[in-house]
Specification:
By secondary structure, this protein is α/β, with parallel strands linked by helices. It has ten helices and 14 strands. The strands form three sheets. Strands 1, 2, 3, 4, 5 and 6 form a six-stranded mixed beta sheet that branches. Strands 7, 8, 9, 12, 13 and 14 form a six-stranded parallel beta sheet that branches. The chain has a two-stranded parallel sheet with strand order 10-11. The longest helix is centred in the N-terminal third of the chain and has 31 residues.
């Protein structure tokens, strides 16, 4: 009898375990899968991707194909410049649609490298996107420059994150004395390709702005002990002061947009977005923290999708 009770207990426990597992699986998949309420919702998601990649409406045309008496399938024909990344568009589109259970198989045709993407929902192709290379179009790119300013050398993990971006975004290290340059260069030991130094006073203010004579003396010393060093200049009329220091390289940040963590994430990201359409400045000087670097890494792909190209900051003409 005892053996029979044990078997019954094991069977009950197994049944309860199966029920719990099934419930967890059902509730998890239900949370992760969104519902496609109408086909027009798929059209809205497609339009969002067009907008995200800054594709103008005049490069998009729509055709319809009658499948049966109740269903017409739309095909989006999209003309794109040669250097446009169709692969990236496909990947981003898939990420946007897969939560709705929409698959996006694609076929590439050569030599034009056109890409036809089918949107398949419940085993039915509901939409087609044809990405076609148009030789008459040129990729519209907006050049922007970004600088990250730190009070000291950032942590190795932060440097690794910035190196992984593979973009010409210099570190700006704040210093008071010329001898700090050699110390910091030795400590960095080539971990980061582009480093600029920014002379400041004890209060953290730009030394060239607040005390030109002291700045001139320190630049003179820096030129002797560490030629070819890059120095940040934020003053508009500093050309006369730096004119004699031809062994140093001066980076012009006089028109830079100042971005920092205190702006809050929303304003910070909005200012970065506006940077590529700003006619007065294309340069941002960002106060570097773990948070601002995280925001920058998050926003950078969107900027590049919209046509931004990261370039080194401008040098001053001596």
């Amino acid at each position: 009898m005892k053996e029979q009770k044990k078997k019954k207990l094991i069977a009950i426990l197994l049944l309860v375990s199966c029920f719990i597992s099934g419930f967890i699986l059902f509730s998890t998949s239900d949370k992760n899968t969104k519902r496609l309420s109408t086909l027009s919702q798929a059209d809205s998601l497609i339009q969002q991707q067009f907008s995200s990649f800054n594709i103008p409406e005049d490069q998009i045309s729509v055709g319809t194909t009658r499948v049966d008496s109740n269903f017409y399938r739309k095909t989006y024909f999209v003309g794109l410049p040669y250097r446009f990344s169709k692969t990236q568009f496909h990947a981003e589109l898939n990420d946007a649609l897969s939560p709705f259970g929409i698959r996006t198989p694609a076929r590439v045709t050569f030599p034009q490298k056109n890409v036809n993407i089918q949107l398949s929902y419940r085993e039915t192709v509901i939409r087609t996107i044809s990405l076609q290379t148009d030789p008459e179009l040129s990729l519209q790119q907006n050049d922007i420059s970004l600088l990250l300013a730190f009070g000291d050398i950032p942590e190795s993990q932060l440097i690794s994150q910035l190196n992984a971006l593979a973009e010409p975004i210099p570190l700006v290290l704040k210093i008071e004395q010329p001898m700090q340059v050699q110390t910091l260069k030795k400590e960095l030991n080539g971990q980061y390709a582009s480093v600029i130094f920014w002379f400041q006073n004890k209060n953290g203010d730009d030394l060239i702005k607040t005390n030109p004579e002291a700045a001139r003396a320190r630049l003179d010393r820096l030129q002797d002990i560490s030629p070819n060093t890059k120095v940040l200049v934020t003053q508009n009329d500093a050309a006369q002061l730096i004119d004699n220091f031809n062994k140093l390289t001066f980076v012009d940040a006089s028109n830079a947009q100042l971005l920092h963590e205190q702006l809050g994430k929303k304003s910070f990201l909005e200012e970065l977005t506006l940077l590529q359409s700003n006619t007065q400045t294309f340069l941002a000087l960002i106060t570097g923290t773990e948070t601002t670097v995280e925001w920058l890494i998050q926003k950078l792909p969107d900027l590049k999708k919209a046509g931004a190209r990261i370039i080194p900051p401008p040098k001053m003409n001596l």
